[in-house]
Amino acid sequence: MSSRTTLPVVALGGLLLLGGCAGALTPPEKSTPSSTSATTISADPAALGEFTAIPRTNILLRVPDGMVVDEKLSGLGEPGTRNTIVVTNMPVGDETPQDAMNQMIDGFTGPKAAAVGLELGEVRRLTIAGRPAVVTAGVQRQSGQTYVKAIAVLASDDVVVMISGTAEENGSLSADDMLGVLTSARWSAETAGGDRGFDLTPAAGYETKDAVGGAILFTLGGASGTGAPKLLAAPSLGQAEVAEDRRRSFAVTRFEGLPAKPSVESTTAVEIDGLPGFELTGRGSRAGETAYAAILFTDDGYFVIAGDFDPAAHPDQLPAFQEMARSLVVF
Asked: What angle do CA 278, 214, 19 make, to 5 degrees?
């Protein structure tokens, strides 16, 4: 992995990223889009690098000086910094990509954004890569640190694409720099290849989707909604090695910090694909919800494999979650 430190938290449209990993997913709620305005953002091509394909996406981005393609991240990163530009494909359900994009706008402001320290400005409508899009920029304040943010969301044929830029305050990458990269993006007819560096085998009945930041999302029968069985696996991105004597307490803290805010009921030491760690189960903050996680430690970080489901609506999914977690293979 690179020498980047852990990414800050960002929550958008029901997605939560925490500590460089993607947390368990909650689908976006139905809502009325916030007010937006039409605008054109001009980027200075001379200030940006050449276009390059972003792994596992159809997006081409200009690469600013100092940044490199990060295959596991599905985006760009600047080694030794927290500067990243991440491309995320977000398949939609029964609604249109345009409707899904409009619903995501509410995640840019209000209580959800405030809860993770996001302070974003005006949402502007424009066209990116020949597709309807919205962009916004601002800052995110977390743990006494401030990060510059720039976000673009595109509505394509059957997918919503989010391009999210995060940069250190007063660093080498400004909001305008990131907006220039985001708004000048191009679309390729071919999906670029790329190796996320790990894989899991879905349990019977589960469907697999690429998710945020090189993560893998498993859903039972493609179901969505609160309480629907889902499991997400993701590596930490640049997290420093966790000392052996701190791993149990780290796993408990990481489990309790999942979006379901679960309380721990059991903690069991495990080893999966040669990685030591812990399996944890508990109850989420929503009534009756069951939560599961496997936190596995590497030489330069950890994997989190986390899921939840509503046992009142679905049979016990813990065996399926354990089966998928224990199928982890790291390349």
From this structure: 55
Residues ≥6 apart with Cβ < 8 Å to 141: 117, 119, 147
Query: CA end-to-end span of the chain, whole Å?
Result: 12
Q: Domain 10-187 classified CATH 3.40.440.10?
A: no
* Interatomic CA distance for residues 322 and 307, integer angstroms: 10
Global confidence as pTM:
0.65
Alpha carbons 226 and 271: distance in angstroms, whole number: 30
Q: Render pLDDT for 130-149 as a digit per residue (tens, 0 to 9).
A: 999 999 999 988 767 899 99
- Dihedral of CA 64/78/165/139: which sign? negative
Give me 136's structure tokens.
Answer: 């916004």
Could you read off the pLDDT of 308-329 as tens digits, one per residue? 999 988 999 999 999 999 999 9
Query: So what CATH class is 198-330?
Result: alpha beta
Q: Give the pLDDT band (50/70/90) at residue 211.
A: low
With H, G, I as helix, E, B as strand and everything else as coil, classify residue 308. Answer: strand
DSSP state letter for 38? E
